[in-house]
Amino acid sequence: MTARDQQGLTQRQKQTLVFIYNSIKYSGYPPTLSELKESLNVVSNQAVLDLLKILEEKKYIRKEEGAARGLQLTQKGYDALNVSTYAPMIGVTAAGPFMDTLEQHGEWKEISADLARLSDKIALFKVKGESMIGAGLMDGDIVVVKHEVTEFKNGDIVLARSDEGTTIKRFVNVNGKIHLAPENPKHNRISFTPDLRLIGKVISKIEV
Asked: Whole-prediction pTM value?
């Protein structure tokens, strides 16, 4: 019978989690299938895929289909290893006029224990522009955006998307009339139009 630890992981399964974590922490990327195969000293891709399938079913990892480096540890995975949680940078977004979100790869940031409890519901974005400096968000800052928000309140700082791209602004609702307001007098407010969608709420900033 295969020995299991207190989390119900076999030695091989835990070895796989540790390798994924170390790859993220030290190289900035999750490992590829080839790298996992070499680390685990197995000759078959299928052996690695079977391991990953078990870990995914146990909710220690999640996979982004079609991505060569699409592995992520869930919070359960981080907890099983008793290590700090890391979150990936999703992209660069405007704090100014809408701009296409620039994808950001290979940069992961350690997050606090409070944020770790939300790790499956947050994403990190780098701010480009100076329209939110009055709210303490500077060009180059990294913000934590919580998605799956069901209600936005007057005064929330939000990440919004339109056909032109994304931007970070203050959500303002005055008697049912909604607009997105900057925190810099050099920038104009943005009217809320039918193509505008609120992706999430900025809940924190990562110190760099």
From this structure: 0.77
